[in-house]
Amino acid sequence: MKKLVVGNWKMHGSRASNAELLQGLVSADLTVTAPRADVVVCPPFVFLSDVAAALKGVAISVGSQDISAQAQGAFTGEVSGLMIRELGVKYAIVGHSERRSYHAESDQLVAEKAKSALSHGLVPIVCVGETLAERESSQTEVVVARQLKAVIDTLGDQLVQIVVAYEPVWAIGTGKTASPEQAQAVHALLRAQLKAAMPQAAAVPLLYGGSVKPDNAVELFAQPDIDGGLIGGAALKAADFVAIARAA
Ligand code: 13P
């Protein structure tokens, strides 16, 4: 399967720094250096239009970091999939742990956002993952299974069209990566759950996220059930992000 490498810029960037970062990615020509990986960047909403325009004709896709569960209406401050689809955006991250924890997003809301993304022709990248306290109390399996179940129950046959990202919360921005074995173990569970829901969903790409860097990417991506990565901090440095895409 072709790997998928997604950069989540989070709330970083400016027009000037974005232009520099994109210049670094474009000049690295990822179509030559990472022919076996699809590459996506997810800037903040306000920059989606600029970034999509800058990447026109370049083999790097654009995604958003969130979307509303609604298409349109009196939802102040929200941005819908319908709106960003018009800009040439292809992916939407939903259920990132920072949204779940700082914005109290429930499993069901995340599932509805995934459904909304699909209804507007976007591929949802659904994030799941346990906190440190949950891992230490042996709840990892239960938590990720519950988060994924809401999506399975809501999407029906559309399940085959999504991407899932496993991001252990304790590994995000901490420099503490899950070991390749720890990540693989959870990915295998997610794969089995998807397959049990729908045999074709075994092919859903499973990304790992949490302190992925150029020096650990090769080993992580070599795991049988790790189909790529969701990259935070290292996606803000062109050289690092290119190196990770090459590792794929
Ligand atoms: P870091 O790569 O900075 O740990 O962030 C991971 C992440 O949250 C990507 O969505």
Can you walk through the features of this model?
The model has no long low-confidence stretch (mean pLDDT 96). Helices cover 42% and strands 16% of the residues. It is α/β, with parallel strands linked by helices. It has one domain: Alpha-Beta Barrel (TIM Barrel). The protein is built from eleven helices and eight strands. The protein has helices spanning 15-27, 30-33, 48-54, 81-85, 97-102, 107-119, 132-136, 140-155, 180-197, 214-221, 238-247, and strands at residues 3-8, 37-42, 60-64, 91-94, 123-128, 163-166, 206-209, 228-231. The protein has an eight-stranded parallel β-barrel, surrounded by six helices.
Low-pLDDT ranges:
none
Strand content bin? 15-25%
Question: Which CATH class?
Answer: Alpha Beta
Strands, total number: 8
SSE string? EHHEHEHEHHEHHEHEHEH
Name the CATH superfamily classification. Aldolase class I
Strand order of the largest sheet: 1-2-3-4-5-6-7-8
Bound molecules: 1,3-dihydroxyacetonephosphate
Q: Classify the helix fraction into a percent range.
A: 40-55%
Average pLDDT taken over every residue: 96
CATH topology title: TIM Barrel
First CA to last CA: what distance? 11 Å
Q: Per the principal axes of the C-alpha atoms, what is the gross shape?
A: globular
Query: Which CATH-level-2 architecture?
Result: Alpha-Beta Barrel
Question: Can you give me a brief rundown of this structure?
Answer:
This protein is of the alpha/beta class and 248 residues long. The chain has eleven helices and eight strands.
